[in-house]
Structures are given as C-alpha cells and as structure tokens.
Amino acid sequence: MGAGTEPDGSSRSDEEWDRFLRESVTGAADAPKEPSARAREMSQRLRAEPGRGQEGWRTHTPARPKRRTGWYVAGVLASLVLLVVALIPGRIADLFAGDDSGSPPLGSETARPTQAPPAEAAQRPTRERPFRGSPAASWAGGAAGIAVPKAKAVGWMSAAQVERALARSRDFLVGSSLDRGVLRGERPENAMALISPYQKDVQDLLRTAFRAPSEKHDPLLLFSRFQPSRAHLVGDVVKTRGRLTYREGERGALRVTADVTFVYPVTRADADGGDDEIVRTIVRRELVLSWDDPDKVSTEPGTFSIVSYKYDMTNGGCGAPTGYFTPPFGTDSDRRTDEAATEIDPYDRSTPVGKGKSPKDECRKATRS
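^ that's the sequence the OP posted. Answer follows.
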C-alpha cells in the first residue's frame, strides 16, 4: 500500500497529503499523538538532568493556587475563644489552672506516702475555687480519690467475693462521709445497713448517737455531718485521698483497712453569696472492717463488723459533742483550739492516724488548711 493510498485502494490528492503532514507537526486536534524525533530527543535530555529523571514528556502539572480555608477557620475559632473568655473569664481560668493549683492531678495512692505534701502558695479560697492554696486542689473528688486494690482470694472468700467486699467497703465510706444528705445532717441509712446487726456495741452507738450525742456516743466517730442552720458545703465536690488494703483476719475473715482524708469546704449558712469566708474542715479516718465467714461467726450476709475506728479532725469545732462538725467562722477562728492543743498538718498522710494524740487531746490545731 502506498503512502498516499487509502485502505480501500483509493488515492489521496497531493494537497490533502500535504495538509495531513502539516497538521501532524502543528498538533491539530485529530493529529497523530506520536512525538517528533526532536521532541523525543528533548525528552531524553530532560530525563538525563538531575531531579528530572521521573518527569516524562509533557507530564508537568502546574501548581494549584492555595486555598485560604484554613486561615478562615482559625480566625473564626479564635474569635469564639475570645468571646467565651470575655463572658466567663473565671471559668476559663479554672480550666487552665487544673481546678485550683495548676498542678497535674495526682495519681491514686497505692502506699503510705513517705512525707507530707509540699507547702502551697498562700491563696484565699473562693466559691469558684474552694480548694485554692491547698494540696487538695490536685486530689480527686468523691469516691474517685479512694484507691481500691486488685482482688485476690483470701480466707473463705474467692477473688470475686473479695472484689464485692472491697466495693461495699468503699460504699460505706461514700455513704458515711460523702453522701450529700448525710453531710446536711440526715441519718446515714445506707451506710448503717452495711454494718452487721449482730455487733452489739456498734448498734448501741447507732441507736443513741443521733438522739443524744455524747463523747462515747458521737455520730462523728463514724459519720461526717454539718448542721444545716450553721454551715453549708461550697460547691459539689469533696476532695479525697486514701486507699483500701486487705489481708486475712481471724477465722479466715477478710479484714479491710480504710485510710482516707476528706476535705470539706464550707461557709456560713446565712452567707449572702458575696465575699464569704470559706473554711476547710479536714477529716482523716481509719476504719478496720471484718467480713466474717457466716459459717463461723454470727453475721448477716453482705454486712461487716467494725473492728476499730479513729479519726483526726481540724477546723471542725471544739467543746461538747453536738453530733455535727462546727467549723469556726469569723471571730470564732481566734478561739478554735486551746493554745496547748497539739499541732497537726492535716494533709500529712505519712504517719498513722492519731499518732502523738493524747486521750484528752480531742481538738487539734491545723498548721495549714
């Protein structure tokens, strides 16, 4: 077949053949796509140059114009943040302060500390920041601050039973020292239901303490209560720090020890919400509970016996028992304790509860609050 011959054998004119050749060189829409010899030579030279090896003939893609969407979104977000800061600056400050101190929250306490926490800069507590200037600012709140160890089989109990007993032991601490109704002076019904009805001495304390408080029958020995007509809690959080431990006790019983410090920020009941005085009542409790084998000891399933209970308290009042903590406000703070009273750092958990306390030393002076 000749160069100017069609597949059907017909011939093209010289003018048509010349036009076809010109369009092939100039790149007409229907021209052949095969590059010319010169184009192939230029492409080989470009590939031979450094940095050009991966770029083929006619493969360059122009850079797209950058969009400004990122800057626009960032500007809108910045405007919103400024608006929120202007409307509620105190709340924003608390967020960046990590509650009160700006310190990272402490992890759970898994063993007794070796020393007291470091001193904090003196700062006056406020309604918005009631733990300001206190080590408790970095503590957890409520039940979250009471560490519970991993359960293992002990004595007559399987690991699963030990786990339930530890959970109920913490429930007692919540019901006795954190329940909002109990803190307002109500009877701690939920907590009392966990105490064995067969423990005569404790049941006698419970029957008498709320009706006629005395040194021997004082509800504060086991429960935290404030008189509603005198003091109100500030905010919704009580800071806590402590832990549960356990071991095998007598007759294969599970013996659980709780060592927990509670920090209660309170103000006068008649405070008007202005520049109120806030006092922190700090109570550290140590309880030893025995979960006895019902086959060996008379007890009600799901209840425990109290082996011992003791506590240290500061800023909770002195004098004859009333059944309530009585935080000192105003001029009362000048006579909150006897001058000869033992001083105590209420945040020092490195020593046992009650260490250095004499039998007559019921009112202890806090070195800080």
